[in-house]
Amino acid sequence: MEMEVRAGVVLAALSLSLFSYCCSAASLITPQNILNGTVGGEITFDISVDPVDLTASAGTWKFGSNVVVTWTNSNPVYTNDYKGRVEVTFATGTLKFNKLFATDSGEYTVTITTAPSTLNLNGRVELKVYDPVSVPTIQSNVTNPVEFNDTVTLTCTASGSDVSYRWFNGSSELSDTQRVHLSADNRNLTISGVLRSDDGPFYCYVYNHVSKNFSKPFNLDVKCDGNSLTTAGIVAIAVCSVLLVLAVTALVVFLLIRHRRSSTGSSKSSSPTTKPEDGLVYSTPTFLKEPGDRKSKQNADPNAQYANISKQPQVQSNTATEYAELRRK
Ligand SMILES: *[C@@H]1O[C@H](CO)[C@@H](O)[C@H](O)[C@H]1NC(C)=O
Ligand SMILES: *[C@@H]1O[C@H](CO)[C@@H](O)[C@H](O)[C@H]1NC(C)=O
Ligand SMILES: *[C@@H]1O[C@H](CO)[C@@H](O)[C@H](O)[C@H]1NC(C)=O
Ligand SMILES: *[C@@H]1O[C@H](CO)[C@@H](O)[C@H](O)[C@H]1NC(C)=O
Ligand SMILES: *[C@@H]1O[C@H](CO)[C@@H](O)[C@H](O)[C@H]1NC(C)=O
Ligand SMILES: *[C@@H]1O[C@H](CO)[C@@H](O)[C@H](O)[C@H]1NC(C)=O
Which ranges does the record mark as transmembrane (predicted)? Predict the structure, then answer.
């Protein structure tokens, strides 16, 4: 009798230890990484019970100390703030958000009770909700950069949470070099002693864990510095001068050829060019009203003639005719 009782106790103890061995092996599998969601987007906290023959017959999700949902036997109770926004899957305890708010970022904890074996299991999930990045814009702190002289800072601006920045010159990514400096946060690109070859196009690329975007191309319209007498400047000026001389020569040659052609082609066409001279010829009679008188006076006393008709009146007379010409036109 006593022996039987003892055997029963041993058996019970044995079965108890077997039971606890089985149960310490059961666990809740939760995402180990931080989950990254987008404002307005969806996210699922995928959890499951191991071994799979156990189900989450009851449980509670909490955000901090606030209950999100609590359920028993397929009967969930959602807290007001989460009604219609979250959904729990009873078999596993998985929680799905249909529409994320930025304020949903933080730590979530879950407690479940399994069936058919009744066990209490705990887990935690960390969520980070990001604002997606907008299309970035580029701004320069120098409106009209001058070659060699100016240091230009380009600043990239985009909305979004935890935005990271990268810069491109055409298709090549920019990094710190002798002339190029990136700020610690990569938002500012500073180019010292800009060159005309730094025209770009420059692009700013922004990203966070949930989105990315490229800016429109940005061109630096670098003007050359007329005052700086560098080798490149001198060469540029020399080339420009030669081109100017060539252009003027070409124009003169062209005009000469045209003139020669027109004068050989028709003698009448050349008459307009002699018109001003005609005017001068006409001016003589205006000035000396009595040519006959003049001649006689000249013959009689040349000195007296010079005294009367000094150079000054002649000039005045010519000027007068010229005015007359202008008026006629
Ligand atoms: C979410 O972002 C973190 C960095 O904040 C990263 O370590 C993690 O792997 C990301 N999670 C997923 C699921 O991509
Ligand atoms: C860039 O941003 C705009 C506006 O915020 C968005 O509509 C677009 O989808 C984004 N592009 C990418 C590649 O994420
Ligand atoms: C170039 O910079 C110097 C000073 O650094 C300044 O005196 C000069 O006016 C600048 N030249 C031009 C064309 O901006
Ligand atoms: C632009 O920024 C650079 C670097 O900060 C500075 O050296 C330069 O003087 C600035 N130019 C103007 C016109 O503000
Ligand atoms: C970026 O550049 C802007 C404009 O030049 C300047 O105001 C700002 O301080 C710079 N920021 C950093 C981190 O260099
Ligand atoms: C940008 O690219 C052009 C063409 O490859 C190059 O000449 C120029 O030096 C580059 N500028 C910068 C600031 O990297």
Answer: 232-257
Distances (CA, A) of 201 to 133, 169, 197, 225: 21, 6, 10, 21
Reported pTM: 0.62
C-alpha 210 – ligand 5 centre gap (Å): 26
pLDDT in tens, 284-309: 333 344 444 444 444 444 444 444 44
Q: Which amino acid, residue 149?
A: N
CA of 213 to the centre of ligand 2 (A): 6
Residue identifier of the C-alpha nearest atom 13 of ligand 4: 142
Give the integer Cα–Cα distance in Å for 105 and 162: 13
Domains and their CATH numbers in the chain: 2-130 (2.60.40.10), 137-214 (2.60.40.10), 233-328 (no CATH)
Determine if ligand 1 sits within 6 Å of the CB of residue 33.
yes
Q: Which residues pair with 267 in a beta bridge?
A: none
The alpha carbon of 152 and the centre of ligand 6 are apart by a number of angstroms equal to 14
Handedness of CA 305, 311, 315, 316 (dihedral sign): negative
